[in-house]
Amino acid sequence: MIPKGLSSREKIIFPQRLFFVLFFIGFIPAAALSQNDSLSKYGGQLVLATTSDPKSFNDILAKETSSSLVTEQIFEGLTRTNVFTLKVEPNLAESWEISPDGRQWTFHLRRDVTWSDGVPFSADDVVFTFNELIYNPDIPSSARDIFSIEGKDFTVEKVDAYTVKFSLPVKFAPFLRGMGQAILPRHKLEKAVAEGTFNFTWGIDTDPAEIVGTGPYRLVEYRPGERLVFRRNPRYWKKSSTGDALPYIEKIIYLIVQNADTALLKFMDGELDYYGLRGIDYPLLKPAEKKGNFLVYETGPAFGSNFITFNQNTGVNPKNQQPFVDPKKLKWFTNLNFRKAVAHAIDKKKIIDILMNGLGYPQDSSMSPSAGFFYNLQVVTYDYDLKKAKTILAEAGFIDRNNDGVIEDQDGHPVEFNLYTNSGANERMQIAAIIRHDLQKLGMKVNYVPLEFNSLVGKLTANFDWDAIILGLTGGVEPHFGKNVWSSDAQLHMWFPQQKTPATGWERRIDEIFNQGVQELNEDKRKKLYDEFQVIVSEQLPLVYTVLDSSIFAVRNKFGNLKPSSYGGAFHNLDEIYIHPEYR
After folding, report:
1. What fold is seen in the domain 21-74+197-299+551-583?
2. Could you tell me the pTM of the whole model?
3. DSSP structure string for 240-290
4. Per-residue pLDDT tens for 277-302?
């Protein structure tokens, strides 16, 4: 997973990630030029928006959607997931075989793929990505949390130039889906690995021309705070069903805007082709579809999660030998009853009714209802009840002993902490304000601190200097791809990352569940394990869940081959989408 505004790999949610016809016709292969009906599909530009600059152009290091919105246009994996059937399909690998014991997978790579600089794609790139990057202990890759079982890595070997063999320590149920992992170019990056500089390679100060991928687009321009520009990769390997060289759209522009309100205004003014609606936007945009020449699509609950979490890191900052968390605060945050009281103080109905115009869903489970089979409805829920919350706090020793309106712990320390969320995400900021208001009714003094998204991610994943954060994670249909969040030693185990040994018995049990679940090939038995995982999370509340958005978005009526889905969104098949001639 990733923070939403991270990256199932579980990403954190915030910015949603998600053109000169004549000039570029010269780059269209002859096969495409020979098809008169397809010539009209080439060209034009797609204009999107994001509310945060990327932190990196390096997919291996990316942990947030502000970076992955760049890398997902450039890099590809051996497989991909069909967004309608949710089945795994070939991509950079055209076929594969599996051994009878389910532990050896042999992939046959496409022979018609080149990197965007013209260098042939080969087995060397696959072996390099796994052995030198993902499994490199000196590189902080979240992917390593996913592609290991009980601390054991896969063995990845080159058979020949276009054949790769993976040997697994045990059976790995979501292996094929996991092979959607982006593959990076050995010829561009092996020197940086050898010199120990990879962690500083392909940062946002890199010349875009240096970044090569096998994907449909190339990054050609980045102006911090202004825009990202991608152009069609003329060497992209994929063809349409009629033999057209893909992609069709010439240029993609991401405008970097201040917040969602700015994005909404730009969409209404016709500057953007897409807008991800908040509930409060629906009454404004839905009636304006015809006049604005766009359609509003509703695809059900969003994937992912939204939550408030408290810093339970017991570690010490090596720079100053001071604890990451003030010991008195650590005592509060590690108190389950403290977290239960907070859970009872979240008015999910109010958030949905007022901020989301009724277009949202209360969240109780660590997976979204849209995940389908693996979603567990039977988890512990926490009704909004401030009286119950106060009782729980009092029984845990949190009482206003001097009648100043602020509760104190058993040692007489007033309960005061900082609550962070990302600035620019207006809905999340309003959710933070509602939660803060109710926590103050409980006698907690909460200092609200909005931060720029990448600065917030830095606190969460690098310096661990925070008390409480309201944030979100992207999600998916496969529970194991959240292992980089839920494993106790994982890098995105936000409340206490990279534990040497599990800090609690319930975290140890979740580790066991993920190690067992990934090896279990019987889907019903897997579901039982992941159902237990979701129950444990609802009982222990490392993340106190809030609400899920409805997946609603508006798209201009200028695109052909647009096939929106709940899993893939509006532009999951971007390489096949074209712009009608009258809109170029």
Report:
1. D-Maltodextrin-Binding Protein; domain 2 (3.40.190)
2. 0.79
3. -TT-PBSP---EEEEEE-SSHHHHHHHHHTTS-SEEE--GGGHHHHGGGHH
4. 988 899 999 999 999 999 999 988 98
